[in-house]
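Pasting two entries for a bug report.
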Amino acid sequence: MTLLRVAAAQVTAGPDPAANLSTATDAVRAAAADGASLIVLPEAVLARFGTDLRAVAEPLDGPFATGLRKVAAELEVVVVAGLFEPATDGRVHNTLLVTGPGVETAYRKIHLYDAFGSRESDTVAPGNELVTFSYRDVTIGLATCYDLRFADQFTALGRAGAELVVVPASWGAGPGKEEQWHLLTRARAADAQAWLLACDQAYVPPVGTDPLGVGRSSLTTPLGQTSARLGAAAGVLHGVVDTEVVAAVRQRVPIL
């Protein structure tokens, strides 16, 4: 059995990467001070949607990633954060950086948000690889926001051994969207038979079709039960992931 203390830092990103890095590192420090070992920040924490993503995109050795790498190393925690990196076709990748002692990997969002009037694929190139990593004897899978609508990705992560799936997001507001967020985070945890830690941007009033966040970050059990959930405002959600629960669920309900 492994117990892992996790946190979702529900913040609001603006258009300025330097200001967002300050917000992100402050949130990481606060979460670490309260005992979290794995700290998840939202999708698009480098710069919010609606920004010129090509102009702000940085490589994974750029100043934003380097700043997160530095605070993760200093605090001896693993940080997961959503940023944008240049793609070879002139677009950008919507990328999750994972960094910390003994851990360095990245996931490029596979399913792009071409829905509800948005066209993420106009500026973002999709990834094509599922990613898992190991931290403190826990296998952790990665997904981003709109990926939540694709059950097969989460089943595949469960079959790959993921005991926790982390899902940074910048969920679009609108009629029924909060209910869909609640439904999908719970359903995808049950599909993967894994804990699911979803970290959304805090609620921001809608501007056009840009997905800016509804808050409501959550930790869900492998049976799809909500263990903890934030409201709409900025804050840090803390929880404990118990891998023994995963093993027990998979033994009792052998769907994978």
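Entry 2 (this is the one that rendered wrong in the viewer):
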Amino acid sequence: MAGDQGAARGPLIGVLALQGDVREHLAALETAGAVPTTVRRPDELAAVDGLVIPGGESTTMSKLAVLFGMLEPLRERVRDGMPVYGTCAGLILLAEKILDPRSGQETVGGIDMIVRRNAFGRQNESFEAAVDVVGVGPVDGVFIRAPWVESVGAEVEVLAEHGGHVVAVRQGNALATAFHPELTGDHRLHGFFTEMVRSAG
């Protein structure tokens, strides 16, 4: 039924609902014209056209993905080209390498980049800043214990920088931002991702 609705109304886009700001992403995706749904199990992952990996705590999300039997299915779908968008902790999970991983922390991969966790500082150093994103335009970026991208491979397109550091990237069907667009009321990045999912479909 959801698939039929997705065909009529827009692509069916899941939000990985293991931990993090799931509700805000669901609302932003709906505003952007997608049919949003939560994803916690492999069968739910198999049903969606694209997936958002939200912000949260990247180590906790990694461990929960293992616990719920989601890590390998996530890796497989991303390898197979499913459109995926990671914000903040989601950016870390889409990296091929973390500079300073916590013990037992794993990634899904999908973007040829090396990232640094909590690079912009701790929770009390959170801030908002204007970020000019290629293909979208200026957006308000909310940075909460945000990572940054230390380096990217040749196939990765840098979409935005802040303070001399890369904070938004794209490689094929994988998109990632170090900041939280779902917290601002500006849903153009979710619209951008929804169009990526439509194009892939």
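Dev reply: Rendering is fixed now. As a check, the viewer should reflect this: The CA atoms of residues 25 and 182 lie 6 Å apart.
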